[in-house]
Amino acid sequence: MDRLIAADLLIETIQRAYRDDVAVVVIMGSTIYQDTHSKSDLDLYFVVNTPRGHDLAMTFIIDGIGYDYWAISWERLTRIANHEERITSILTEGQVIYVGSDQDRQRFEALKAHALDVSDKHAFVRKARTVFDRVYRLQFWQSQAQDLTQVRAYGMDLLFALTHALALLNRETVKRGRGKLKGELLAMALVPTDFSVLYDVLVSSCDSQAIKAAAHQLVCNTEALLAAQEKTCIKPHDFREQLAGFYEELINFYNKIRHGCETGDLVTALFAAHEITREIEDVLRGTGVSAQALPDLVGAFDPGDVPGFLAVADQHQAAFVALLTVRGVPIRSFADFDELARLLAAKR
């Protein structure tokens, strides 16, 4: 059976009764790759100009094969062009078989050109991170699953998100998927360590624990790959410029630690210690300076040894001030409000 008859019938209907409502008809998938078999369907979508165009959307079966007249709005196609969905290849690889007007063609081609523009590496690394962060939730639920069906199901969900993130990281699109997905990913430049082996376990093993272990390792290896790429996107920052005025705000967190320890509010003290650690890590990023030489403030927290924790907090503060001083970062401090008033009065 010639499955393209379904496309021909759709186009005939558009030309007869929906000229103003449908902008573009596109075929995609196995048909354009000439990789069909006796049970292959016809992958097709059409872009609508008006709400009436959605009237042509339908799914149906002929000779045991399912068909889908899939309607897409320009708004959704724009999101797809922005690589916000995994299916960007329907735009970049799809074959246009009908256009309603030159304006429709130009609009479609503009979105396709936008989708094909992968010159902004930083943007794609950010997109990859956004997608990849969803993997952690899936891995958690997989780790809680008890039966093989659920373990496999979460594993497949995990693979969908993880491979989408990898495609974005490579500034590529997943074109074929399913049985060809592994080959597509392996052909990309940036692939996590042991991807092939771990992928095979996820899709072939009948051992729940083996699948969970493979998923965990694949997530760890992908995180390492993504983090390495993120480092290449960090623009170098001047240490003095980056940290100017930083300590003047941070000192209040040290004060919260002391006050919390003095009043028995150890929860506030622990939160403040964590916030100091994170704030310093963030502000140092891109400066080439590491916080590793500073004492481990969070690790030193011990409700049974408050004086010991306070001593480490003092050491941490002194070490950080020394780090700023040796690198020429000034710390603005006034003896009293009169000194502040004199400074402000001198401003014109």
Number of strands: 5
Q: What number is the mean pLDDT?
A: 93
CATH architecture tag of the largest domain: 2-Layer Sandwich
**H/E element sequence:** HEEEEHHEHHHHHHHHHHH
> Helix fraction?
55-70%
The CATH superfamily of the largest domain appears as: Beta Polymerase, domain 2
| Terminus-to-terminus distance | 85 Å
Biggest sheet details:
5 strands, mixed
Query: How many individual helices?
Result: 14
Question: How many structurally independent domains?
Answer: 3
Low-confidence runs (pLDDT<50, min 5 residues)? none
Return Rg in Å: 29 Å
Report the principal-axis shape: elongated
List the strand order in the largest sheet.
3-4-2-1-5
Structural class: alpha+beta
Output the CATH topology of the largest domain.
Answer: Beta Polymerase, domain 2
Q: Strand portion, in percent? A: 5-15%
